[in-house]
Amino acid sequence: MEFLRPVSLGEALEMKAARPEAVPIAGGTDVMVELNFDHRRPAALLDLTRVAELAEWSRDDSVVTFGAALPYTRLINELGTDLPGLAIASRTVGSPQIRNRGTVGGNLGAASPAGDTHPVLLASDAVVEVASARGTRSIPASEFYLGVKRNALEPDELITSIRLPKATGPQQFAKVGTRNAMVIAVCSFAISLHPNESRAGAAIGSAAPTPRRVRQAEDFLTEVLDWESPQALPDSAKRRFGELVASAAEPIDDVRGSAAYRKHALAVLARRALGWAWDAYREGERSCA
Amino acid sequence: MTPQRSAYTRRTVLKSTAAATAVTHLTSAPAIADDGGTSEITLSVNGQRHRVAVEPRVTLLDALRERLGLTGTKKGCDRGECGACTVLVDGERIKSCLTLAVMRQGAEITTVEGLARGEELHPVQEAFIRRDAFQCGACTPGQIMSAVACINEGHTGSEAEIREWMSGNLCRCAAYQNIVAAVADAAKETPR
Predict the structure, then answer these.
(1) What ipTM, to 2 d.p.?
(2) Mean pLDDT of chain A
(3) Complete edge-to-edge strand list for the sheet that includes strand B92-95
(4) Which CATH class is domain B32-114?
(5) Which of A12, A147, A160, B184 could link A6 by a cystine bridge, Cβ 3.0 to 4.6 Å?
(6) B116-148, pLDDT tens digit by residue?
(7) Chain B nearest-CA residue for A179
(8) Could A25 and B103 be called an inter-chain contact, meaning their C-beta atoms sit closer than 8 Å?
(9) A97–B167: do the CB atoms touch at under 8 Å?
(10) Does A38 lie at the interface with B, CB-CB under 8 angstroms?
């Protein structure tokens, strides 16, 4: 196995162009499991840990852009205020040791339907910035996931950064697992309120071949939420929202849970997360008034 | 630079024999990429620099245990789930099974062997003994390294907080109650 160690993004892209089969490695928390158990024998590894620009971030008034190799711990500590939903999801990844190394870029590269950050990226209108020696592309998260562990990257492309609007309203994330640490999600749910657009984004994970937005459920919220003078949501509306979320799922039976359980649990997660987010919005509106 | 202790055990001899056999096979099958290349790297462990020859696929964990003879760091699951292989890299706790040795050149690595000052144990080690925070001891080096980081991070405000921030380390003897007590004890004694 060849080990490629670029020190700049330009060099990394040249190497990827010359060796498209090279597997990128940054945090290693996913790739290393495959190597240790011989599930994968890549001809080459592309070590991205020396490419400084991949672990940097920047922000302006409305948008945060962070490098694909920024570890979760730094994302939580340094960007948690601007990206609360992503921070909540990141806090549930693995364990402290995993979060010191794991990255959102790795989550996207692996494109597992169970990746923890995907639902938040979808609900928050994230854009995945990718690059190759040929140039750069911006791929909306909603077009990034193509199938189980398949994404929209071309073989010579690398994920360089993730761009998200700063939160303009409450965001929530919830997942089901057998314990709080070191579990792959049985199912997960994210919601981001966008009061400036009078709408909400919502998405599910680990409940279909890809993470996916739940557009019918989003449309339902556009109908029932009164952003100008927010009222307490009736239970019937929360329940209906949960049903619509569950109906968008196409889960499978596997060792972690049955399809029926996943649908049930998603409806519960969605109902609760909507309640938390909407109550926080109402609270915020009241304190502003 | 310290002289390299030979870390050959029966197991590694068996392994290298198997590798040699595999290489013979590969020469007759040129379609398979050659992966036998080793590179000389320098690892800085517990304040000492070591030159070591490793293949790119060798994890930091295997380099520590089998090349440097530092067997305090334990191999539990080899997939990042159990935490037995936790070490500090530039002060941050990571799982040494989930990183390649070649990726950690230039970093300062601390293993459980690097905590004591001569005969004087680290406060976390003292607390683990005082609180009887282990039974079989297999997870203990990882628990201790994780605890050192947990205390440095300031995540010891309550029992619940300690449990949450020690959640990446499993103890199959279930000595958790005493581990939490030991971490809380050591946190009181450790200036941050």
Answers:
(1) 0.93
(2) 96
(3) B48-54, B39-45, B108-110, B86-89, B92-95
(4) alpha beta
(5) A12
(6) 999 999 999 999 999 999 999 999 999 999 999
(7) B167
(8) yes
(9) no
(10) no
